[in-house]
Amino acid sequence: MPGAKVVLRVENLVKRYDREVLNIERLVLHRGKIYGIIGPSGAGKSTLLRIINQLVKADRGEIYYFGRSNSHNAKDSLDLRRQMTLVFQKTILFRTTVFENIAYGLKVRGFKKQEIKKRVDTLLEQVGLKELAGRHAATLSGGEAQRVALARAVAFEPALLLLDEPTANLDPANVELMERLILDLKRNTSITVIMVTHNVFQARRVTDEVIFLYDGRIVEMGETKQIFTAPHDPRTGAFIEGRMIY
Ligand SMILES: Nc1ncnc2c1ncn2[C@@H]1O[C@H](COP(=O)(O)OP(=O)(O)OP(=O)(O)O)[C@@H](O)[C@H]1O
Ligand SMILES: [Mg+2]
To answer: Is the CB of 45 under 6 A from ligand 1?
Structure first.
């Protein structure tokens, strides 16, 4: 399943609340790339991630994961959910130790105890939290908690990692750490990442391609460099230069 080159294909997706908040004709994402979603507040960025992650149902449209439609087959859907994971801006950790938080996804997926220990130790090292393995998650600072959340999310090597402003509340050192982790992941695995960010500089530093979402629609999508140096749509330019009032 994760062998497919096209990881995600979205077609004619519509979501309404009291008004239409998303209308995406087509979106195709490839394996091994980091995609950034940028756009004003209320553009539909989080809603799109939630629909992709199947936390929210679309009113219309189809999403194909790894070349397969999101069929209503419950088993398919469960397999699929095990291939992707979403990290929110505000982390919700389990009420247990740092180690157990990271180990959780591996346990439910049936990994052996030894393998779990090995992986969790490696991840703790990578996120710089080795000393905190035995700490209760409730006592962590925001930056530490967010690093645990990312480690927990990637522990089982999902094919698709969804990040909703994962660094919005962090100080610059923690932001850099998180960005480095994401770039390392890209280098060392075939993971596909979709990252919503308010920070256009971050999109520029981390992503391969940028999707500019405005009023529920994709105004422009392209290579990060092109979007930042020669955007085709004036609204994209206005947004990245901070001239867009919203
Ligand atoms: N559960 C809901 N019920 C009603 N309206 C909703 C709901 N969730 C989102 N919306 C509306 O849908 C629109 C898109 O919301 P969404 O959270 O996707 O925006 P966003 O691009 O993530 O914004 P931000 O940058 O502020 O996080 C907004 O107008 C929001 O108020
Ligand atoms: Mg949002």
So the answer is: yes
